[in-house]
Amino acid sequence: MGITGIRKAGNRTAVQRLCRNHPKMPAEWICVACRSMFCNGCVELRSYSGASLEMCPVCGRRCLSLADVPKIKARKPAVLPARPFAQELAAALAYPLRLRNLPFLFGYPLIWLIVSVFVAGSVYDLSIAAIGALAAVVFGGYICLLLLNILYDSAHGRDNPVDLPDLTEIGSVLSSLVWFAWATAVCLAPAAAYYLAVAGVQGYDDPLIYLLAGAGFLYLPMALLAVVVRESPMALQPGRVFAAIAKAPGEYAVTAAMMLAAMVLLALAIWATVTSVVYALPLLLVHFHLVMTTMRLTGRLYVAKRDQFAWFNEE
């Protein structure tokens, strides 16, 4: 199973002629100003002097039919060259604030809490179990698709922030959830195996369980990068991932530390939902910001170390 939905969502070129808003729909119109391409359902119809014109929903300029202008090409995404790591870190921290749909960043904690209510309620009331499960899958998959899009675009040198994914692309949402879950499961496998081995002896009191889980989350950003670039489960082979980490130990240590901090904040937020929801909201906000920052910085690290990470592109 590949992650073509992620690739299409982040790689809309003139050759593909795909709609900007619906990556699986063929484009029929192109804007004369911003060069964005759209399907028939996305262009806006406006009447001028008794005639209907197709207008761009992004910039408001006129759209022309691709059938009439076959030589017009879409504007390629800006490619941002590698910069010193300190500059990349500062830019990555600011990246989430550049999202075109910034309210989603601040709305994430509230949506997370609402979904959590349905999930928790399903334990006591089986009648809402289906709603809770569906909400968790859709919301989780949507977030995974957004994060993998950020990672994919960043790894390909794109400077413009990604658009929010289209929720109607349910195939891409579900496949992103599967890939993210698979990578996370591989990273946490040592901790899970150790816990199962000592569950009847020390249980959660054994600190080694937490050390192994923390090491797994330190491993996760590079594992996700391998998945996005290679689109293969074999990309998660520890030998390959550790070899890439060894090529940029200092930079990756900072990147992985942010991922670990984000996971700690998520754990604290889950605990806070039981004690005080007021504290959960800021914890979730900072957690989501750090995860997006980590995805951006990991992708930019690939741009800077592309030659050293050449094994990512090996067949």
Quick recap:
The protein has 315 residues and is mostly helical. Helices cover 59% and strands 6% of the residues.
Tell me about the largest β-sheet: 3 strands, antiparallel
What's the helix count? 9
Give the low-confidence spans. 7-15
Strand content: 5-15%
- Give the rounded overall mean pLDDT: 80
Structural class, please? mainly alpha
What quaternary form is this?
Answer: single chain
Structural overview:
- With 315 residues, the chain is mainly alpha-helical.
- The protein folds into two domains: 4-65, no CATH class; 85-313, no CATH class.
- The chain contains nine helices and five strands.
- The strands form two sheets. Strands 2-1-5 form a three-stranded antiparallel β-sheet, with no helix packed on it. Strands 3-4 form a two-stranded antiparallel sheet.
- Strand 3 (44-48) and strand 4 (51-55) form a beta hairpin.
Write the layout of secondary structure elements.
Layout: H1 4-10, E1 29-31, E2 37-38, E3 44-48, E4 51-55, E5 63-65, H2 85-94, H3 102-124, H4 129-155, H5 170-198, H6 207-230, H7 238-247, H8 249-275, H9 277-304
Helix pairs in contact: 1-4, 2-9, 3-4, 3-9, 4-5, 4-6, 4-9, 5-6, 6-7, 6-8, 8-9
